[in-house]
């Protein structure tokens, strides 16, 4: 028969292991950065969660296109384009979803790999915040690609 302290230790190990597995499967902590669906809702000036309408179809289409482009981009570029880390990577829109809709640009840019840059969220916000949203999560940096490239060159020179 197993001793109670062994069962307790085993239970504790299983709980900690399941927590580690669960947290590794979750996306990086988002702070105040909205999901792609919420960005699309805000840019299209729709109520979140509107169902059974052409808006829902468009939201689903654009979000699916983004997720496909994101997967492809992360396969192509496996590091942060600013600092070079391979941890906590995310894709950031160079031309923001908000700009795409408000400036009447082609909505296909939402799911266009060339409109994405790979940035990290290490230490909470990382390069995604520093270069993608330096003035806050609500504002996107239109010069994100140039700023990340400059940071990368500076890092390489050291």
* Main sheet attributes: strand count, strand direction, barrel closure: 2 strands, antiparallel
Give me the strand/helix succession: HHHEHEHH
Number of domains: 1
What is the typical, i.e. mean, pLDDT?
80
Describe this structure in words.
With 158 residues, the chain is mostly helical. The protein has helices at residues 4-25, 36-43, 54-76, 97-102, 126-132, 144-157, and strands spanning 89-93, 116-120. The longest helix is centred in the middle third of the chain and has 23 residues, at 54-76. It is 51% helix and 6% strand.
Quick structural gist:
The chain has helices at 4-25, 36-43, 54-76, 97-102, 126-132, 144-157, and strands at residues 89-93, 116-120.
């Amino acid at each position: 028969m197993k001793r109670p302290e062994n069962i307790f230790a085993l239970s504790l190990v299983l709980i900690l292991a399941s927590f580690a597995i669960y947290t590794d499967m979750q996306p990086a902590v988002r702070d105040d950065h909205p999901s792609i669906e919420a960005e699309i809702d805000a840019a299209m000036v729709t109520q979140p969660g509107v169902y059974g309408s052409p808006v829902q179809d468009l939201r689903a289409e654009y979000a699916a296109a983004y997720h496909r482009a994101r997967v492809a981009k992360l396969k192509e570029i496996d590091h942060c384009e600013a600092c070079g880390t391979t941890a906590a990577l995310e894709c950031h829109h160079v031309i923001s979803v908000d700009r795409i809709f408000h400036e009447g640009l082609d909505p296909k840019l939402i799911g266009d790999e060339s409109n994405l840059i790979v940035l990290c969220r290490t230490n909470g916000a990382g390069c995604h915040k520093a270069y993608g949203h330096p003035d806050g999560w609500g504002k996107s940096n239109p010069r994100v690609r140039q700023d990340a490239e400059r940071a990368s060159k500076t890092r390489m020179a050291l």
